Amino acid sequence: MPGETREAVGLEPAAEGRGTRVLDLRRLTARRTDEAYRSSTSLELFFDLCFVAAVAQAASHLYHDLSGGHLGHAVGNYLWVFFAIGWAWGNFTWFASAYDNDDDPYRLLTMVQIAGALTLAAGVPRAFESGDYLVITLGYVILRLAMVMQWLRAARADPERRTTTLRYAVGYALVQAGWVARLACDQPTYLYVGLALAVGELLIPIWAERAQVTTFHPEHITERFGLFTMIVLGEAVLAATIAVQTAADSRAGTDVDLLVLAGSGLLLVFSLWWLYFDRTTQRMLRSMSTTIIWGYGHYLVFTSTAAIGAGLAVAVDALIGQAHVTHLQQGLAVGIPLAAWIATVWWLRVGPPLRGPAVAASPVAAVLVLAAAWTSAAVPLMAVITAALAAVKTWAVRRTD
Q1: In this structure, are residues 208 and 158 in contact, taking their beta carbons and an 8 Å threshold?
Q2: Rounded to an integer, what distance in angstroms lies between the CA atom of residue 327 and that of residue 317?
Q3: How far apart are CA 77 and CA 4, in angstroms?
Q4: 263 contacts: CB under 8 Å, gap ≥ 6
Q5: Cα–Cα distance, 104 to 110 (Å, whole number)
Q6: Are 328 and 278 contacting, i.e. CB atoms less than 8 angstroms apart?
Q7: Contacts of 370 (CB under 8 A, 6+ apart)
Q8: Which pLDDT value is given to residue 279?
Q9: Coil vs helix vs strand at 26
Q10: Cis link prior to 352 (omega < 30° from 0)?
Q11: What helix, strand, coil percent values describe the chain, rounded to 5?
Q12: Cβ(100)–Cβ(41) under 8 Å?
């Protein structure tokens, strides 16, 4: 960055014109919000790909529990696990947008966070199977404490926003102590403490940013959240594809019903991509209040996207008689996350810039999707409804441009 102070720590004086560095160390000063061509770095993309392991574990165990008829158990564990995934990913993304200087300590602390994410992913099976959150908590705390170290580095290098960065560091450190202490609690205290700590996690950015807003880059944030949405959407495609492949291998000959279900799933995924990526949201990230809502709302986008893939896999199992669910439950396994996805994306991306009757298209579609769960062709109908919504929304948006 122009004007950036660099410090190099070496074992011996650097030779003129070459330099021998052991550690690339720079001040973690705030980046500008108007940087041109700010895009995701290779480290950020690597961070995203490593988080895919946790997303895949959560979605896979949601599918298996739903297919086995354990609905309450599946949803409860899935929401808890995905809170840890989505919140840790989002916190790193916002911090990187404001303070990424790509020096060695920044890279190493990011890799510690990746190690925490992989530890979290390794704990997902135990959480779903026996309710044991020890490994998940360990991975999450590793993630968050590395983030605390990043905020402390920023506090030292950015005097203008020191109050903000210290609030982040102290707040997150205290909450991590709470997550560890929670392990000693029994039910129902365990649940209540967890809910209180989750609320605390959500309130810390609101409290910290009141002192001085961090210098996140709107275009960078938009791209980062879009990329992670695409990655989670890819996980949904993979889950549905594997389910269709398994079903096809178990049945001889051409199965028209399976082909229709596979085609419907593909149309559904195409429509979700179209709905999300049709319009940029840079204009919506101009104030901290709207930015907080936009960022927090993506928890529902990420959660419901992966759940749609799990629901499609359950629909395949139901088609070949391997799911222990009723026809309605099979429809709702897709319909509930799909309706939540449509409503959330409308709220965050579509509703604000649109005017007129088209504003109501998404809420109407969400209701129709839920109603389709009661029909004998639930997934095909949901796919057609979502595709029609994409067409209506695209037409309305382009009329306003």
Answers
A1: no
A2: 11
A3: 45
A4: none
A5: 10
A6: no
A7: 332, 335, 336, 339
A8: 57
A9: strand
A10: no
A11: 75, 0, 20
A12: yes
Q: How far apart are CA 186 and CA 191, in angstroms?
A: 8
Q: Tell me, what DSSP letter sits at residue 198? A: H
- CA–CA separation, 384 vs 6, rounded Å? 56
Query: Could you tell me the two tokens for 83?
Result: 């809170």
Beta bridge partners of 7: 25
pTM: 0.86
Pairing of strands 23-26, 6-9: antiparallel
pLDDT along the chain (401 residues), means of 10: 36 38 79 83 92 90 87 88 93 92 92 95 91 93 96 93 95 96 92 95 94 87 90 86 78 71 91 81 64 88 93 88 84 94 84 62 93 92 95 76 57
pLDDT at 124: 93
pLDDT of residue 18: 42
Return left, alpha or beta for 366; rule: phi > 0 is left, psi -120 to 50 is alpha, else beta.
alpha
Tokens of 369: 């999707």
Helix axes 327-345, 378-400, angle to 10 degrees: 10
Residue 133 CA to its chain's centroid (Å): 20
pLDDT of 17 reads 40
The sign of the CA dihedral 266, 327, 388, 340 is negative
Locus of tokens 């609101």: 206
